[in-house]
Fold this protein.
Amino acid sequence: MKRRDFIRKSTGAGIAAGVAISFGGYDRLWGKQPSSTPYDIVAVMGGSPEAMFDLGIQELGGMGAFVKKGQKVLVKPNIGWDRTPEFAATTNPGLVKRIVEHCLKAGAKEVYVFDHTIDNWTNCYKNSGIEKAAKDAGAKVVPGNSESYYQEISIPEARILKKAKIHQLLLEADVFINVPVLKNHDSTTMTCCLKNMMGVVWDRGFWHRNNLHQCIADYGLFNKKPALNIIDCYNVMTKNGPQGVSKEDVANLASQIITTDWVAGDAAAARMLKLEPSAVDYIKIAYNMGIGNMNLDSLNIRRIKM
Amino acid sequence: MKYSSLKKIRLSFAIVFFVIVCVLFLDFRHIIPEGFFGIFLWLQFVPSVIKYIGAGEAAALGFIAILILTFLTGRSYCSFLCPLGIMQDIISRAGGKIKKRFRRFGFKKSHTILRYAILVLTVIITLTGGVYILSLLDPYSIFGRFMTYFIRPVVIAVNNFIAGILQHFDIYTLADTRIPSFKAVVYIIPALFLLLTGIMSLIKGRLYCNTVCPVGTFLGLISKVSIFRMRIDNVKCSKCGRCAIACKSSCIDFLNMEIDNSRCVDCFNCIGTCPDHAMSFGFKLPQQREVPVDEKKRRFAISSLLLFFGISQRIFAQERNAPMPNKASTVKENKTSPVSPPGSTSIENFTSKCTACSLCISACPNNVLIPSFTEYGIAGIMQPHMDYHKGFCAYECVRCLEICPTGALLTLLPESKKLTQLGRAVFIKENCIVQTERTACGACAESCPTKAVHMIPFPGNLTIPSTTDDICIGCGHCEYACPVMPYKAIFVNGNPVHAAAKKPENIQTDLKHEDFPF
């Protein structure tokens, strides 16, 4: 880098940083999580997705603990497939709706919902029921189908995924809420919090070509981490995932897991599928890289049965 | 210029109809319900004939309606319902704005031999050899190709530009949409015809319709005996010649007080220009007139046409085989047959009925339908095939079958389409990431809607794809999803005749938790 370039760039960065600080939310700059929560995991069982969320988020101090007045929130469900909600290939629309409502009630300026779908995006948005649910609640449903929405970021500490193009809304949002649906997965054993991030990047093929498990874990190092992971385990695809063949694949586990630590969330979710967390490669890798804690025994878990 | 009321009716009808047909081709967000397409396209002459003969669909009687209409009123189809005709009227009007003399027509003799030679040749080749010359010359299909290959990309680009601006204002109603791109060679035919019809209409009005278009010539045969037609009142007429100058078809021989009704397209422009009110559209019995046949001229016309098509085939043949980037995978996909779209039942059936109007290519939400070059043989040029490197056939989608105006694609219910096997997935282990890199992938299996492609255990806590033929429907999602380049590790080999797929069997899961498992 030339001296002139260096000066120009560092001045730019300095101004940007200053502006960011003056506009608040500066703890993001240091990659810090929002204020610590009373529990590592809140798990709820036995209610509707909406009721379980109402109860679960209350245990964590309400949505106000995560969303501040005037903030932009990104809610990222799994809308990857052109399947109706009963296939459980996509996040429960009722849950998405309730989360959006909580965010707006907490004073969010705008709530965005999108996914980089695998099937045709308009059909996925429509048939999953998520577009309507989110819009009804007052969210802005945004397309994720075109490369023009994606911006390159770097993850310097990553082993393989050192660069990725991610959706600009994830970068713009003040608060990022990850809302995966737990599913069996043909090649990665299961899909949940960390793997849901394949829906915020443009080039998934790179992940598939270059050690999928490592890339999934690598993404966990990116400094824009979810403030909350709300795992939909209401209807769970137990086999033939992640798309499913028929409703026979789906078990009604009527559960929900809410956590700020996505590795812990994936570990708890693995147990819901009767898997040991360490048996899922990307969970083990992420844990070893220090992204989160997969040792459920050492975590402070609040369990609620409705 | 004064507009007669008939002309006003013609203009308003044509504008509305034209806009609707354009919108059908330009609907890149796929908002228009499938049912609407048929309502507006069932009167398109050539697609309707093919649908009636090929599919035996009584509902495809649009062309009978056109024949009756033509017998009653002459070639009003050409001015009211033919999108290519209306487009040429628009170009001709623009021509008049550029140079006045482009809009001053005057009587010309018809190119009788050429036009009938083209008609006869088209009919003979279509009956004996296949639908390709008809596809090339069918005005609706020519128009469809303009829209699909030239106008649609521009419209999407404009949409993307506006979407990009709106995005900065946090408005996402317009979505950035991928502009489909095809091999350069498929643009040649639409471009040639755009040039041909564009130039001819710009300077000579309806010369194309009255010389090249086989539909125009055929309807012209009927309009020779049509009941209602343009006529000149020889008592009122002062032989000023204004009608002839205004006639886009150059068919008014005012000196001899004759109108060549085989070329008149019922545009009614002459009525308003006549200062003597001598032009009227009314009832008149036809006059018989012998057309002298010149064998030499006819032979010349036929051979020059053949030469044209011969030369064009040579040109296309040189432009194939784009170089492939040399990267990871090594084993070439051994595709023995292309994949024809769902509802086509077989390649033979499909290629004998498709006029390559490209409506399905425009309407496919997944951009999987791609105009062919040599996939179906050179005669099938422009007919769409499924290109699974570009897209895949969505499991629930039946849009192309619902809208096909020629019946080359027959309507199937989504449930039957899901059990129609277009081809079969073939796994190439040597190209697969799991085999070559020893890392997990499974992009193909996760995409498979029936689990015909699924993962089986592989050394190193891995899984590797495996296929079950009888439940594979050949949708190509596996091929599309496969991240390996340039050759995929899984591809769909087409079934020349579509087969029936078995319904995937599945058993009820028994996973249950009485309490938290953690």
Notes: The longest strand of chain A covers residues 228-237. Chain A touches chain B through 59 residues (CB under 8 Å).
